[in-house]
Amino acid sequence: MHTAHIRDKFNLHWHKGVIILLLILSSNQSFGQKNFDINLPNYDEKWIHYGFLLAVHRSYFSMDYSEKFMSGSMDSLTSIQPQPRVGFDLGFIVNMRLGQFFDFRVTPKVGFYEYNLEFNYNDGSQINQLIESTVVEFPLLFKYKSIRWNNFKVYFIGGLNPAIQASGNKDDENERKLQTDGFNLSGEFGFGFDIYFPLFKFAPEIRFSKGLLNLLQEDKFGYSDGMESLHTNVITLYLNFE
């Protein structure tokens, strides 16, 4: 599909992303050995800030086999294997200061997701069930931040992310065989770096998300018979601008 081709362009080598973050940290530390101006010196005293975010993510399902599959009554099906896919997110940031070390953040965003399940059969054949969806998310997060060191801070972030599917497999139930629920709730945890520039603050962040709800629904084609549950797993690299 055309949408899938667009998302493939956002494919990210995660080890490169980590290396970039380490380089940013190292360069900022080296600058700390020199005398230079403190950017945005009163930034953290304001009780509310706004911004926007861009992100790329790697998403996949975790699943449990059903008793029907484990009992061997599904002779033709040998395994179901989740396959990671890549997508991207766009959103806004509303950050409220709770104290010296704590903030509360609301980051409404739109995520473009793909999840793929590979069904393997004993005759050697495979069937891929690709679930594409556009999701409206409303993460509610608490941010614990370190003391500012020159133009740099480290922080940890965590909270809950309710999400509603705006479009996807529910739009073509007769064509797409595997069905999932349109509402999800995820627990999220991550870390990042606040880097202060003269006109704005930039914060690269890595966040891990685990779905708390079982999204599996029965379908008339029998693809759900081999599974007991489906949960989302997402690893996201955020680029926050405030």
In short:
This protein has 242 residues and is mostly beta strands. The protein has helices spanning 2-8, 14-31, 67-70; strands at 48-65, 77-83, 85-97, 102-106, 109-121, 126-137, 140-145, 152-167, 179-180, 183-196, 201-211, 216-217, 227-241. The strands form 2 sheets. Strands 1, 2, 3, 4, 5, 6, 7, 8, 10, 11 and 13 form an 11-stranded antiparallel β-sheet that branches. The protein has a two-stranded antiparallel sheet with strand order 9-12.
What can you see in these coordinates?
The protein is mostly beta strands and 242 residues long. It has a single domain, classed as Porin, CATH 2.40.160.20. It has three helices and 13 strands. The protein has helices at residues 2-8, 14-31, 67-70; strands at residues 48-65, 77-83, 85-97, 102-106, 109-121, 126-137, 140-145, 152-167, 179-180, 183-196, 201-211, 216-217, 227-241. The strands form two sheets. Strands 1, 2, 3, 4, 5, 6, 7, 8, 10, 11 and 13 form an eleven-stranded antiparallel β-sheet that branches. A hairpin with a 4-residue loop joins strand 10 and strand 11.
